[in-house]
Every structure is written in C-alpha cells, then in structure tokens.
Predict the structure of Pectinesterase inhibitor domain-containing protein.
Amino acid sequence: MKSFVFSMVVFFVFFLLSSQVSADLISDTCKQTPSVNLCESTLRADPQSSKADVQGLALIAANKLVVEGTKTENEIKELIKKTKDQPLLDALKLCADKYNIIVHYDFPVAVEAIKKGNPKFAEDATVDAARASDKCAKGITSTTDLASSNKLVHDLDDIVLYIVRLLL
C-alpha cells in the first residue's frame, strides 16, 4: 500500500513538473521574440504546445502564420474586386503578388524546413516573407482592416523567425 501511494505521489509530482517545464519553455521562447504577448497567446492557444520542444513551437507558430497569411491573401483578393480607386488598386495588386509568393512559396518552405530540422531554410523564407509584407504595407495604409491583417502576418512572421533562430 505504501509503495502504491509513493508511486502516485511521484507520478503527480512528475506530471506537475513536466507541465511547468513546458509552460516555462513557451515563456522563455517567447521572451526571445519581438512580440512576446502575441507569441504566448498564439502558442498557448494550441494544445500541442504544452508538450512541444522549441522546434515544435516553431512549427505551431508557422502553421498559425500560414492560416493568417491565407486569410490576408483572400482579403486582398476581395478588396481588388471592390476597389475603383486606381492608386489603391495598384497597391492591392502589388500586395496580391507579394502574398501569392508569401503564402504559396515562403510559408510552405518555412514549414517544411522546420519539419525537416533545417532552420536556415526556414529563416531565409521568413525573412523573404517579412520583406514582402513590408512592401505591401506601404500602399495600403488607407485600408485599416487590411493594414491590420498585414501587420499581424508580419508580427507572426517575426515570431517564427526568432524562434527558428533559436534552432540555428
């Protein structure tokens, strides 16, 4: 009976410590990024993050980046259909070109590189995506919703970049 109680106590202590270590890994990792709060809320929203190592956290953030990038690309396409203002239309078309590359090339390369344990390729892809979203941002300041979506993509991209750099 005593050994059973002892085993249960050891199990619960181990369980609590492992949960605490995971929570600390998320906090410690996110403190290395420029958007600590966004990083923590993004990672903690995924139930797999509590069991993930740094590579797993990078993959979780990258997958969220793909989702938000795709939403932003769709938002750009919808605005192009509705916009009559030629300078804004030109800016939106530039954004559409940039997001086509970001969503269909840069992000998949980053995700695959993280999965395969090649952080350098992931770093290169996220840097390219950040530059592209910066170019998009210059012409869309008058469309606040799109500007906010683009900023979110840029901030998530930075988070992935900084986490990937921890793997180098």
Notes: The mean pLDDT is 91.
